[in-house]
């Protein structure tokens, strides 16, 4: 099943609903609303344009896709929540799938929670954030598509986010899959998570 992506050090381990393989490496999941840019973010992080499938249509990623980076860690591309155009039953199904993964995945080191800073904060994003904090799963809040914001809009959006989520503004990472802003920061946060320094 595993497939080396040509010319890279990234392996696609497969697409799973349940029964995920035990890889024996630390894992970091990319979570967020449908269409927020999870798959695009993952592609930027692994440096492969089309490792994870992206789409203008929300609901593209419906199962959990695992990508192994070298022999070091695994990135999990999660299905998005909050896509209104699928049946409630399917929504519940996805939610259950995501929660089961987050609750049971032993190798899970932390979650990159992508949010769109142009949307009103709260709702499902806040639910997930609260759930992660309660479960003591480390979470990094990443505001994505910042290329779409002017400087002024960005300032305002970040203040709003920080207030709504009770998180210091400086700890919210600004990211764009388009400009690649925030890529290095995210990668270094992943490095820190998989190999914590002793000091
Ligand atoms: P689902 O799998 O459906 O939950 O979506 P996703 O969160 O994986 O989003 P995906 O990466 O497929 O991106 C959705 C759309 O947003 C695509 O049209 C992307 O090109 C676009 N997009 C993603 N990231 C960015 C970004 O940083 N800037 C801009 N301008 N567009 C982006
Ligand atoms: Mg996706």
Give an overview of the whole structure.
The protein has one domain: 3-Layer(aba) Sandwich (Rossmann fold), CATH 3.40.50. Helices cover 33% and strands 21% of the residues. It has 5 helices and 8 strands; from the N terminus they run E-E-E-H-E-E-H-E-H-E-H-E-H. An 8-stranded mixed β-sheet has the order 1-2-4-5-3-6-7-8, with helices on both faces. Strand 4 (64-69) and strand 5 form a beta hairpin. The longest helix is centred in the middle third of the chain and has 17 residues, at 88-104. The termini are far apart. Bound molecules: guanosine-5'-triphosphate and magnesium ion. Guanosine-5'-triphosphate (GTP) binds at residues 32, 34-40, 54-56, 58-61, 79-80, 144-145, 147-148, 176-178.
